[in-house]
Amino acid sequence: MSTPLQTYLSDTAPENVNPAFVSYIAALQQVAQTAPEIAASVVKELAAQRSHLKLIASENYCSLAVQAAMGNLLTDKYAEGYPAHRYYGGCNNIDDVETAAAEEAKALFGAQHAYVQPHSGADANLVAYWAILSAKVEASVLAELGETNLSKLTDEQWESLRQKLGNQRLMGLDYYSGGHLTHGYRQNVSARMFVSRSYTVNRETGLLDYDEIEKQALEFKPLILLAGYSAYPRAINFRRFREIADKCGAVLMVDMAHFAGLVAGKVFTGDEDPVKWADVVTTTTHKTLRGPRGAIILCRSEFAEYVNKGCPLVLGGPLAHVMAAKAVAFKEARTQGYQDYAHRMQANARALAAECQALGLKLQTGGTDNHLMLIDIAATHGLTGRQGEAAMFECGITLNRNSLPFDPNGAWWTSGLRVGTPAVTTLGMGAAEMKEIAAIIKLVLDGTKPALTDKGTPARGKIVIDENVKAQAKERVSALLGRFVLYPELDLGFLTRHFAQ
Questions:
Q1: For a tag on the chain, would you pick the N or C end, based on fewer CB atoms within 10 A?
Q2: How far is CA 41 from the centre of its chain?
Q3: Spatial distance between the Cα atoms of 207 and 205, rounded to a whole number of angstroms
Q4: Residues near 347 by Cβ (< 8 Å), separated by ≥ 6?
Q5: Distance between CA 250 and CA 168 in Å, rounded?
Q6: pLDDT digits 0-9 by tens, 436-490
Q7: What is the reported pLDDT for 457?
Q8: Do the beta carbons of residue 322 and residue 292 sit within 8 Å?
Q9: 287 catalytic, yes or no?
């Protein structure tokens, strides 16, 4: 019986053989020999992503080269520590991989130091927090005691240090104003590590009020002043944050997980480039940066030795195969093609936002400067974000609900939808497609109503979609995705026949 790869090679003329597809078939074939259900799920996910328009602001499509870099024996090696300072033997090649990724990151962002081990943005923020605590609290205590080894502290000295480490102050953007869970949200460990206080956007404009943030910071005097967002549609003036941090004596930390691609692509420069102004910068490597799932930390040299100690501080063994994929992604991002992509991503977001407003939709802050926008569907359609998210998915659009500033519907139901352009820009879409996407969004919202309870009142979680609207929306989405095919190198029909049936 022929294998799928043998079938493909025998049925395809030599000049039409696609090397990338050959590699993909070979990899799935290996998986299917042991776990056919997993191979099937991979193929089904490709089918699902080809059938839905991806507007999730925090998702993208990495290259097949990035994917291939993760599927190899590098995953087998333990390499706790950092290059030339490992706790395991035989790490020479891992040192080369990690060093290459770090050097590429430094060159890409103009950073003094890069640490490429964090597995996620949350991990990166934890490592950064503890590195800052080590540099600014622990180091001074050890200097006063004339000691360098924590293990040599007495129990009393250790308890005194532990109390100081556990009672420092963090000031970050409020979750409902677009901040992240790890920025001091009380349900997150960040608010339990620190005495945490949040700043908000202006209630009238929805924008950051730097003078108000400065006033609050001077009163609160945080150890860490944190800037950055997961759902704020405007650029940030990091020079102004630097001034505030200097005035209140804080370390300036920026979480640029969502907009790192706009920094790498030279869309955000000058005062809008966080690496230029911050002491410590964290970011994921997927999202707008279009790399593998993972994260990195960039910092000034004074924090390097502390950041490098992510293990034993927070992390265990680094994922060498993912660090390899990060190196590949950073190389891709250091090209003119990537810079063009980043500028198109912003242009697409602005075009989509403008068309949404022209169609009568209400956008938070009235537009966008970056890759995302927030649509207030409670105001215009009487829907919760959860209802809007469900309606969009049923009609072929994948996006996520999102809280709006001072949201009366809370974090679960929400009043808004977050819409982003990273993935559709990767597919090659432009202004004309943004106009069509806005029209489909408006069509679906207009054709969706809350379901009624037994008492005749609107249900928060259930919806009724006009069937004609649903059919029309799905047809229009299909037409778009038929012109802009995800991973065109991959023959989905062949993969489905051989692995997913």
A1: N
A2: 23
A3: 5
A4: 430, 431
A5: 11
A6: 999 999 999 999 999 888 787 777 778 999 999 999 999 999 999 999 999 999 9
A7: 79
A8: yes
A9: yes
Cβ neighbours for 498, distance < 8 A, ≥ 6 positions apart: 4, 7, 25
The tokens of 181 are what? 């869970």
Q: Are the C-beta atoms of 404 and 380 separated by less than 8 Å?
A: no
The overall average pLDDT reported for the chain is 96
Residues paired with 86 in a beta bridge: 81
Identify the weakest region by mean pLDDT among 325-329, 333-337, 412-416, 449-453: 449-453
User: Cα(4)–Cα(278) distance, rounded to whole angstroms?
Assistant: 52
Catalytic residue among 200, 283, 284, 421: 284
User: DSSP letter at 89?
Assistant: S
Transcribe 225-263 into DSSP letters.
Answer: EEEE-SS--S---HHHHHHHHHHHTPEEEEE-TTTHHHH
Sign of torsion, CA 266 423 229 283?
Answer: negative
Query: What is the rounded average pLDDT of the residues 313-338?
Result: 97
Q: Cα–chain-centroid distance for residue 48?
A: 21
Using the structure block, give the residue that is written with the tokens 């556990």. Answer: 166
Above pLDDT 90, what percent of the chain?
Answer: 96
Do residues 57 and 417 lie in contact, with contact meaning Cβ atoms separated by under 8 Å?
no
Q: Is 487 an active-site residue?
A: no
Residue among 276, 287, 309, 470 flagged as catalytic: 287
- What are the pLDDT digits (tens) for 368-413? 999 999 999 999 999 999 999 999 999 999 999 999 999 999 999 9
Output the pLDDT for position 454. 78
Q: What is the pLDDT of residues 147-189, one digit of tens each?
A: 999 999 999 999 999 999 999 999 999 999 999 999 999 989 9
For 197-207, the pLDDT digits (tens) are 999 999 999 99
- So what's the pLDDT on residue 204? 95
Distances (CA, A) of 151 to 41, 131, 139, 313, 481: 49, 18, 14, 14, 59
Residues in the chain: 501
Strand 85-86 with 81-82, pairing: antiparallel
Which is the catalytic residue, given 293, 362, 449, 460? 293
Local structure of residue 455 (DSSP, 8 states): T
Residue 198 and residue 173 in contact, taking contact as beta carbons nearer than 8 Å = yes
Active site residue 255: yes
Which of 44, 78, 209, 376 is catalytic? The answer is 78
Strand partners, 114: 298
Bridge-partner residues for 372, per DSSP?
420
* Contact partners, residue 97, CB within 8 Å, separation at least 6: 74, 320, 323, 324, 327
In this prediction, residues 250-271 reach a mean pLDDT of 98
88 is catalytic: no
Q: Is-catalytic flag, 293? A: yes
Active-site residue among 104, 214, 255, 433?
Answer: 255
